[in-house]
Amino acid sequence: MQHILSTFPSDHQTLDNRVDPAKTAPVCVPKVRAKDRPTVYVARLATEGQVRDDAYRIRYRSYVAGGHIEPNVTERFSDVYDDMPNASTIVIYDADEPVASVRTCTFARGTDLRSPALDAFPDEVRALLDRDRSGPFSGRGIEVTRLVRVPEAENNQGLVFLLYRMAGYVALCAHSQVHLACVRGNHAPFYRRLGYEPASELKPYPGLSCAMRLMASDRRRYDEVRRAVPVMDPLGGLSGNLAAFFQGGPVSLHLRKV
């Protein structure tokens, strides 16, 4: 049985699934050197069990390595949001090896759609959704969450750009006007460079032991960033055929023009 977190606030893991820390030793994971990294990857939307399981395994390895969750016997990490109809999970593969994953949660003003940010920062998110009521798609939002890499690739910044490329494609297709991310305090400067601004103080976040800060951007700033940073742009000519993406088909992702 895979490990499922309870609803927020969460106790992280059940006693039955926890692993005795005294029986686990730190694992030194060798990092892949920059010169040995590929320049082409494949993205898949988790529409079937194996891809979803790959995402849960990547999350687990990343969060355990970072000390954000306790080890558990299933070596998987998922939560209640994964099964919601507004959630989309993406996995990036190096050949057949899953190396990174991200989840998006779309939502809209006046609906009962949920996301971790909405549950952790309800007043702040609703204020952001209410900020503009003039456009045809105003009140639509997206949260980029569960952005993780395997420990061997934790220094591979290219994977982060690819994850944001595909999350951005979901945002474009959903006509999302408010873009959200909940980040640890030390990651805020990077998100500022992606067009995000702080929208809250640090608060508890569903499923993790570390406090997170809500950061927000919008469609205009997203368009400016993706056009300035082609590696993040799903429509910038560095991605393969996107037609079958939402059916779970593979999409090739290039880090540079060939």
Q: Can you summarize this structure?
A:
With 258 residues, the chain is of the alpha+beta class.
Describe the structure.
- The protein is α+β, with helices and mostly antiparallel strands and 258 residues long.
- It has one domain (38-254): Aminopeptidase, CATH 3.40.630.
- The protein has six helices and eight strands.
- It has helices spanning 49-66, 116-120, 122-130, 157-174, 188-193, 219-228; strands at 40-45, 87-94, 97-108, 140-149, 178-183, 197-203, 212-218, 251-254.
- It has an eight-stranded mixed sheet, sandwiched between helices.
- Residues 1-16 and 20-28 have low confidence and may be disordered.
CATH topology: Aminopeptidase
Major sheet characteristics: 8 strands, mixed
What is the mean predicted local confidence, pLDDT?
A: 87
What is the name of the CATH superfamily? Gcn5-related N-acetyltransferase (GNAT)
Q: How much β-strand is present in the residues? A: 15-25%
Radius of gyration, Cα only, in angstroms? 18 Å
Physical arrangement of strands within the biggest beta sheet: 6-7-5-4-3-2-1-8
> Helical percent range?
25-40%
Per DSSP, the total helix count is 6
**Name of the top-level CATH class:** Alpha Beta
- The H/E string reads EHEEHHEHEHEEHE
- Give the overall shape, derived from the CA principal axes: globular
Distance between the termini: 43 Å
> How many distinct beta strands?
8
Q: Helix- and strand-based class?
A: alpha+beta
